[in-house]
Design brief:
homotrimer; 12 strands; lyase activity (chains A, B, C); Thiol Ester Dehydrase, Chain A; 12-stranded antiparallel β-sheet; alpha+beta; 19% helix; 351 residues; disordered N terminus
Chain lengths: 351, 351, 351
């Protein structure tokens, strides 16, 4: 015999468009301590080989106290915290901007996250709206480790709810390299190119150069779910086959980001640390069985204040097996069907 | 050319019903040190979000020295140790009772386990019997971390072997909440509901209330095998497709327990620690491809001696995609075919 | 619109046969710090139960400071480092010899690897050649942890390139047990057979005895890829379905080695540490869906200088579900089609 069900009051229905107020700060739940376990899992889930994140000794040679966890662990963990409050009812994750890594995260650090609503704009259909948030991750000392802006299209609960005054934040199309934050002590003057795996320094890359990273990885359900859970990302669409008629699970866009970044080692082994995320589009969905490949385009280079350290701005593109290095959009400016990710970021590289 | 095979003498055939003696204590092999690796894997395999097991800082706010490993890691590890001696030739895992968690387990702790035979009763068919054991897990200091009773139906090696005098232990149907053991120092007076993820305190739950935990997870072979191996559970049926005509692997019942418990976060985020297991039934088998959902029923509440800490008795039910919150048994008292697990436990929650 | 692609100059094409020079030493990239995360993942991926690698307390009873990581983690990590320089263009991994473990690796240790070319022999077809290397893994103190010889068949880039003078190293068919290196402090005089899981000491094994390890594991794609990535092994064939017409991924031979070794616990629980690898053949390829079983043959025993410690030489054979314990080769001396691995090693066991 069925009983009364209290889930309407006890479980998290997520926020709808009309639940957001401009300027409000949302403190996200479930802080997270990361350890060597997260690091090992990251290396099991992605073919990550950047030496600074693989070896304590290599990291020390670069002026860091020990090897930090991969920057994308920081990103995914902070992002995952925000999901229950920001994107549980999201129709689409529209974009990223002004992402900056403030300091590395080390095993033993505890991360928590807040988001401030910095923009709201109801869509003309009256059914959805765009929410802009600046999400900030902090460690156990209260210091910022990462902040970034993302905007998502969110459903309205009640289509009759009044539209807020539209506010669209003015976002930089690229993080000014002069404002990149360098980890304290970072110094690439004793950087070991042999141990890093490639001989190409910043000066060896030309703006406009395209690098085909060659290797491919065929994606499995178990892997993307393990990754997404590890970041405590609760978005239902990644785990449950029942909502879609084709019974497929949509892969977390961040899984594609990490896979593409790891594949980019082959040709960009010295693009060690991610300093900023300028923008990103999940151009097409990714499903288990897809074989991911990646290519990069050098967009710019810049000096930094740290000894021996330069910055390289890269477009990182993930494609499925029908994709081709260098092919991104069609004549109308639309992403080609085989492009899964177009990510624009700054990395730190020895000069 | 085939050679002589010595496995009859060297490999473990497991114990049969007539190998158990009332009162005997069996020391289980292969002690296990747990680390941050087990913790990270647990979070990759289950959507676990209870803050006390996610954040060292949150755990400290609750009076603990650091974040312990999930209580179910303790349960599975101790259970796994007992499998080669207790359930290698089991036909069925019949039940659990009187499970109590005595203290949390922290990264670096080493667990080992013993079981005492507390009951024996041959079945009327003369082919099998029921063995009752009280299994106890201890840490490297020799202190008990968990004990529980389970009973299993075990094959006889020799149907002609004499039946022992039947002894069925007198087991409590529920652990008396006055005997729950609280972790030393536990204090929920500074408990942060925002960081925990929900605002519902013990007083917000009514006895008889049913909570549909909403989220679903479709299960993969790789995941349940990784989990089961991590607990060093050697039961062949979970790993090997060849014994069954349908070539399916039966999923370890503990995998369903952990998945359901993790899913119950959505609606029971503040049911932080498991204090006792009153009983449990693996009502129907679970296979890869099943989509698991969970619902809970509040069975009772009770005070505890620890500051700000109350106890909540919950029925946690895991169902496959055809299940429905609140629907448990048919008119004849038989579990519905879509019910996989019916677990009765005490959790600790802020008052 | 497609752009210029620079991968010819930036990505690693791997070495071809004519790129190797006799005597040259190749320093492999991407040093690796291992942690409790690698340990936990190893136990999730393989049914590993040897107590010395499972429990800090058990390891201390054996005279070690704490529980080391599984010897095969050391092997795979060192092997993985060598792949981009030695076997990226390999047609076949032909053999191993003279492998010796010099000291255990503990969580926190950082491994790096070098290989010296010790033999070169062009094949008569003029298209390929055999490269012999002695690969050495060192820890952060510069001390050797493992060295072994392997030889691989490598493609020539240019079939017209001149053949080098053929040099085939003189390799021992078995490591002399008198030269086995025992971990400092190792002492099995207080070894606990009950906690180890079996009662069989070295003296209980007879040369020629064959042990069927009984248990089977059906292999999943996600698992072998996670394992192979964790060792930072970049060989494309393990990850990418697109190169083969049957769209199958070839499983890393080391995955079969670790699976078979873990399965061998059942009958060889006291063959605790691997001291040497005498030789090995990946007799037939392994694919996801295969159900692996293992059997061992005792080839020899020997004393060691460490208190209570003896050495046992074992042949470890992995078979698929059509295999049978003791059946290895056909009348013509060719491996039976169901044999996947034939590994010859020395393990340390209580006397």
């Amino acid at each position: 015999m069925a009983k009364d069900i209290g889930h309407a009051t006890k479980t998290n229905p997520g926020r709808f468009f009309e639940d957001y107020r401009l300027g409000e700060v949302i403190e996200h739940a479930v802080p997270r301590t990361v350890s060597g376990g997260e690091r090992a899992l990251y290396h099991a889930l992605y073919p990550a080989r950047h030496a600074l994140y693989s070896s304590d000794e290599f990291a020390r040679t670069c002026g860091l106290p020990t090897s930090p966890v991969d920057d994308m662990i920081t990103f995914h963990t902070v992002f995952g915290k925000s999901v229950p409050d920001i994107s549980l009812n999201a129709v689409a994750n529209l974009g990223y901007a002004e992402g900056r890594f403030h300091q590395p995260v080390y095993p033993g650090d505890t991360l928590q996250a807040t988001s401030q609503v910095i923009g709201l704009k109801q869509n003309s259909n009256g059914k959805t709206g765009v929410v802009y948030v600046r999400t900030e991750g902090r460690n156990q000392h209260g210091s910022v480790v990462l902040d970034y802006v993302r905007w998502v299209m969110v459903r309205k609960r009640d289509e009759g709810a009044a539209a807020p005054d539209p506010v669209v934040p003015d976002l930089a199309s690229v993080v000014d390299p002069a404002t990149l934050i360098l980890p304290e002590g970072l110094d690439f003057t004793h950087y070991d190119l042999t141990l890093a795996g490639e001989r190409h320094r910043l000066g060896d890359y030309a703006v406009g150069e395209v690098i085909d990273h060659v290797d491919g990885v065929t994606i499995e359900e178990a892997e993307h779910m393990m990754a997404t859970r590890l970041w405590q990302n609760t978005s239902k669409t990644h785990f449950d086959v029942t909502p879609r008629a084709d019974r497929r699970r949509l892969i977390y866009g961040g899984h594609v980001m990490s896979m593409a970044r790891a594949l980019s080692f082959n040709g960009l082994a010295n693009a060690q640390m991610i300093a900023a995320i300028n923008g990103g589009s999940h151009a097409n969905p990714c499903f288990a069985g897809d074989t991911l490949r990646a290519w990069s385009e050098v967009l710019a280079t810049a000096p930094t204040a740290a000894p021996g350290v330069g910055a390289i701005r890269l477009r990182l593109v993930a494609v499925n097996e029908d994709g081709r290095a260098g092919a991104l959009k069609d004549a109308a400016g639309k992403y080609l069907p085989h492009v899964l990710l177009d990510l624009d970021y700054w990395a730190l590289m020895p000069v």
